[in-house]
Structure formats: C-alpha cells, structure tokens
Amino acid sequence: MTTVIDGKQAAASVIEAVTAAAAALERDTGRRPGLAVVIVGNDPASHAYVSSKSRMAKQCGFKSVQHTLAEETSQETLMALVAELNADAEIDGVLVQLPLPRHLDSDAVIQSILPEKDVDGLHVVNAGKLATGDAETGLVSCTPAGAMILVRQIHGRDLSGLNALVIGRSNLFGKPMAQLLLAANATVTIGHSKSRDLPALARNADILVAAVGRAEMVKADWVKPGATVIDVGINRVPAPDKGEGKTRLVGDVAFAECAPVAGAISPVPGGVGPMTIAMLMANTVIAAYRANGKPAPKF
Ligand SMILES: Nc1nc2c(c(=O)[nH]1)N[C@@H](CN(C=O)c1ccc(C(=O)N[C@@H](CCC(=O)O)C(=O)O)cc1)CN2
After folding, report:
1. pLDDT digit string (tens) for 45-58?
2. Residue 203 burial (CB < 10 Å; 0-12/13-18/19+)?
3. Which architecture characterizes domain 28-114 according to CATH?
4. What is the atom index within ligand 1 of the atom nearest the CA of 236?
5. Taking the CA atoms of the chain, what radius of gyration do you get in angstroms?
6. Where do the Tetrahydrofolate dehydrogenase/cyclohydrolase catalytic domain residues begin and end (predicted)?
7. Active site residues per annotation
8. ipTM over 0.90
9. What is the mean pLDDT of the chain?
10. 69 CB less than 6 Å from ligand 1?
11. What class, spelled out in words, does domain 142-273 have in CATH?
12. What's the pLDDT band for 135 if we cut at 50, 70, 90?
C-alpha cells in the first residue's frame, strides 16, 4: 500500500512547535520573533505566497511586517530597504520573495541580507555552512528543509545505504536538498537538463526528489518499485474540465501513474508546498533565539 505523505499535517506540527517556541521566547525575554517579508511587483502567485507568510507569522505570535514595492522599484531602493531591516533590532528574519522583476539583480539583494537574518537560507554563508555540515549556526533553505522532514517520516534520520536522486540544481532547492540528503548519509546524485539518462538514474533511486519545473515529467517507469517520491514542482496547467481558462496545480511527477509504483509519495498540492511556509516560521524562531543568546529549538 502506497503512503501518501501529508504535508499539511507535517506543516501543522511544525507550526505548533514554532508557536510554542515563540511564546516561550516572549515569556523569557519580552521579545517576540520578528519577520519582514519584501515583495516587488505584481506577480499574483508571489502575492499569494507572501500573504500566506505574513498571515502565518502573525498566527505564530511573531511581529510580522510586509513591504510591498512597485514593479519599477530600483536596485538602490530595494537594497536600502534590506539595509534598514538588517539594522532593525525587532526584525530577526528578512525574506525577499522570488522571483524579482527582471531589471533587479536578485543575487546582490539576497547577499546583502545579514546571514543571521537570512531566513530563506540563500546567503553564501548559510549555503557554505550547510555544505560544510554546520547545522548549529546556519539557516537552511525552507523548501529543502521541509522536504527533508517528509523524507524523515518515511526513513528516519539515517539514510545509510539508500540512493537518492535530486532532479534540479537550483540554489533555492536542488543544491541544498542534495546537501541535506548527503548529511543524512544517503548516496546522492544530482540530475538536471544536461544529464544523459534521467529515467535510468531515477530507476536506481530509493529516494527520488523532483524539482525540475516541468509538469508531470516523472513517469511511472522512472520510479523504482517501493521508492519514496518527493514532488517539489508547482505547475499550473489548463483544466478545461473545470471551465474555460481554468487551471489546476500539478507537480513534476505524474502522480496518478507513479503512486501505485512508489512506496511513499508526496502529492501536489498538499505535500512539500505547505512545508515551505512552516520552515520559514521555524527559521525565524531559530534566528530570534540566537539573536537573544538562547539555544535554538530544533525542527
Ligand atoms: N524568497 C523565496 N521565494 C520563493 C520561495 C522561497 O522559498 N523563498 N519558494 C517559492 C514559492 N513559495 C514560497 O515563497 C511557495 C510555494 C508553494 C507553497 C504552497 O503552499 N503550495 C501549495 C499550493 C498553493 C496553491 O494552491 O498555489 C501546495 O503545494 O500545497 C508555498 C510557498 C518561490 N519563491
């Protein structure tokens, strides 16, 4: 029987623990964790994600600040805002929603966030700490951290002897996911658009993580029987059955055909997606504990 991994339930458990940790910090220090979320432009999906982040931060008992900037915002204005948030003692976490409009240099903006406030885990200092195994002082990118919690539900903390394939090599997901799997002792391969035979690599994987951004690309004959399949894709495709112009959300994995072959599989929606926001809250509470000189909770 295939296990369908419930990301909403896992996210709810993380949020419960974050809320308790935030309340304990406020009791001890009189300070609540503070999260600032910055969005530039008009992308409707990004606005929806940012609203969820701000709402969830409030629900967790944080000070929650949202900065909504116009599409034509200059690099200087955005960097000045990040500098202001870096200097704000009430703000523990700064997140700039991606993607930014094309005229802006995302990397320069992300690298200007103080590493200790980089709750997206994208600063080179945090990426470097992850790569060198420093889990104690760094911050890990939210989606891979969340995906790893789902993997742990199935396999526990030690992945010794298991082959893992991560399809995708982005800084936001593929690279940190591979590092987390490696740190848990898996034998890790990173596949991407230039890999010679992705289906063959996938068939060798006990843990198959798909983050390619191509709707339902992973087919049933890519999946090793009994494998754990983690789908990180978020693709909107036309859904004429729902009415003209309507869309539905699908992952990078063809769920209906892969589920019967897999041992465990995360759905889209309701799998990794909800974990992204939960882990952002976890990173913010971790940053707040550290800023107050207290040992940070683990998630
Ligand atoms: N600065 C960042 N930008 C972006 C990140 C990020 O981690 N940091 N990730 C994505 C978008 N994202 C959060 O920002 C995100 C994506 C998806 C979900 C989610 O809960 N998805 C639901 C479905 C939601 C829907 O119906 O559209 C699910 O999969 O169940 C949360 C957050 C890019 N930008």
Report:
1. 999 999 999 999 99
2. middle
3. 3-Layer(aba) Sandwich (3.40)
4. 27
5. 19
6. 5-120
7. 53, 97, 120
8. yes
9. 97
10. no
11. alpha beta
12. confident
pLDDT digits (tens, 9 = 90+) for 170-226: 999 999 999 999 999 999 999 999 999 999 999 999 999 999 999 999 999 999 999
238, β-bridge pairs:
247
Same CATH fold, 142-273 and 28-114?
yes
pTM: 0.96
Statement: residue 159 has pLDDT above 90: yes
Centroid of ligand 1 to alpha carbon of 30 (angstroms):
31
Ligand 1 touching residue 279 (CB < 6 A):
no
Determine whether the shortest distance from the Cβ of 234 to ligand 1 is under 6 A: yes
Tokens of 188: 């890790």
pLDDT one-digit tens code per residue, 167-178: 999 999 999 999
The secondary structure of 273-286 as a DSSP string is: HHHHHHHHHHHHHH
Report which of 83, 80, 183, 173 is spatially closest to residue 129, judged by C-alpha positions. Answer: 183
Cα 165 to ligand 1 centre (Å): 22
Q: Where are the domains of the chain?
A: 28-114, 142-273
Angle 188-191-196 (CA atoms, 0-180°, nearest 5)?
125
Look-up of token digits 């990426």: 127
